[in-house]
Amino acid sequence: MNVVPISETTPPAPAPLDVWSYEDHALDLDLRWWAAANYLTVGQIYLRENALLREPLRLEHIKPRLLGHWGTSPGLSMIYALINRVIRETHTDWLYVTGPGHGGPALVAAGWLEGTYSEIYPHVGDDAAGVRTLFRQFSSPGGVPSHVSVQTPGSIHEGGELGYALVHAAGAAFDNPELTVACVVGDGEAETGPLSGSWRLPAFLNARRDGAVLPILHVNGYKIAGPTLLGRSSDDNIVSYLRGQGWDPTIVAGDDPREVFPALYGALRGAQARIESMRHEARSGGSPTAQAPWPAIVLRTPKGWTGPDVVDGVQVQGTFRAHQVPLAGLAENPEHLRMLEEWLRSYAPETLFDEHGRLVPELRALAPEGDKRMSATPHANGGRVREDLPAIDLATYEVAIEAPGRLRVSNTFSSGELMRDLYAATTKPDGGGTFRLFSPDETASNRLQAVFDVTDRCFVGQVLDTDDHLGHDGRVMEVLSEHLCQGWLEGYTLTGRHGVFATYEAFAMVSASMAVQHVKWLQHAQELPWRESVSSLNVLLTSTCWRNDHNGFSHQGPGLIDAMLPLSPGVVRVWLPPDANSTLSIMDHCLRSTDHVNLIVVDKQQHLQYLTLEEAHRHCATGAGVWEWAGNCPEDEQPDIVLACAGDVPTQEALAAAELLRDHVPDLKVRFVNVVDLMALLPENDHPHGYADSQFDDLFTPDKHVVFAFHGYPRAVHQLIHGRSNPGRFHVRGFSEQGTTTTPFDMVVLNRMSRYHLAQEVLRRASRRPDGWDELRRLCAHRLAEHERYIREHLEDLPDIAGWTWRAAEV
User: Fold this and answer.
1) What's the fold here for domain 394-607?
2) According to its UniProt record, which protein family does this protein belong to (predicted)?
3) Which of 583, 552, 302 is nearest to 419 (CA)?
4) What's 2-379's CATH class?
């Protein structure tokens, strides 16, 4: 057993660990509460009957399938018990984030012991019948998952996909000045890239306006089948590493609960005292750059602590064998059944639960009151504290349109102005707020730099005269990690705030699985009436595949659209605005929406503008529509062919193709359709935004060929329109993994989505060949050849293509 406080900081070291009284009576109570949590954890994994062992354990009391994770659970429950004591003694607000999310039964047990579980789920009562239900539902059909899932009270973090505990804890702490987030980081999870990057949090956490994050690195030595790297590292190496990241760690280690409990309690009280001191100093005028390193705890305990030690002559406790189900094959091995009963009875359940199966009064009294309970904190149910964003008149940012397709502006700049004013309108007197922008060093690159009119980039460190819009109190979050940016925003929105994650389109795939996990969380949250609605996760993808011509092939990839499309229709929205006003309308809508993952795909470069703000509002609300001015088919007539598009660059190329068709084959009746809400293409029964078949056919006709210029991979459109009338009539041109450092127009040429390719496709699919058909076909081939020669000689696009604007039809 050892306890090693580490401090080489300028401010005074924390008080000695024995300064806070922890008497034997308190220790005995906490150990009994821990025993109750451990008993309930084991029971959830194994039992379906005889929940409180009121009779000898028999095979028919055992679940037919044994699922769950025991190994990390005792450590999680010990930490929980001692934080509860700290909460009661200090009256502070804490949130518990469990990186080892597979320790689900421990957190379910804690919620039941605090009474929250039975309040939220009345069918899981606080008595013997409730314990039976609690056990039977765990990892069972119609029950709850084995992880710390959305169904678990007090959770904002599922933890099945490891790596995001500390980043979610950080998002919860930003602009939450009185909150302390206890974040348990598993030593297996610590091997992931996102978690490694998350240790840099002290460079962004400002004690003046933010809450605190207390990492508790739980080192129990093993993953599912092998040792952890940190488990085989020395204390000195771990301490040196954490110090280098900006933390001041205390090590608590041992295998005797009567020694570890007091040591961990002292470390927690010391950390809380350090946090309060840092808050006082920062909020009394101290500089954030002078703030002490944030406290952290390194906890070494045996994996599977208090469980079976040796099974069948093989060491289990303290090894990887304790990770999931230490005793298996009970039907084939009666000795294992006997060992399970011995294990369960070692917690003395008859002393923990009364004759009715309720937790005994002296243990019930250990829970904090009301919302101070970590299983009941409103910070883990962010809709309870969420405030709507203030109303802002979007007309302030409107791009004035005199005629469609003539003016060029950046499609994202006005949205940056909107975010600037949201920053200003939501800033609080302490310098915090309820809105933040997260971006991997790309705020200005993505033309959102208007936010710097009112705030800086956040950096709690040395600021130089040569830095640009960098400040200790800045609230624009930039770090070169998509994982951190998205994870910070997830934690921020789940605890009741609003924000945007803006990134280059191709590199959103770095954190694509995070987006998938967040969709799954929101999908299940919508099914839980006690989970209040939270702000949507808004992902702005810019620097898109079509206009990253200057960066090369690595920067070109629209794959996140494809990753999102198959997911929950109740959650996922994909937007492809064609211009600045539609981008503004969509951005405002998404920021005010709840319980969605909004994917907004629009390029940052200057583009032609088409819609007034009022027109943009109508178009975005409808999701798709016919642009009468762009086609030459009267509204009350059927076209010969439909020319459709979705996305800014595809819209321009489709319009240019429409102009070619109008000029050279004027008798060919073309209907022009623009799609801004991609989910409108789905049938109405498959998505809330989906069109009815009649509505879809009114737009695209029931039988005419459709040439579709699409922002992403063509397969996405084919996937969406499956089941529509004759889907084979849709001919989609989109990104086909072609291109590198080249000119903007060459990108659409290489991917065969240029105006000339679209016009050729229309001619190929048209049901008749009017006058001018052959001439236009030859013109397209000639212009494509001319383009290829010109860019190789002049290194830029043909002037008439680079400067093309829409020319209205002559009356």
Assistant:
1) Rossmann fold (3.40.50)
2) Belongs to the XFP family.
3) 583
4) alpha beta
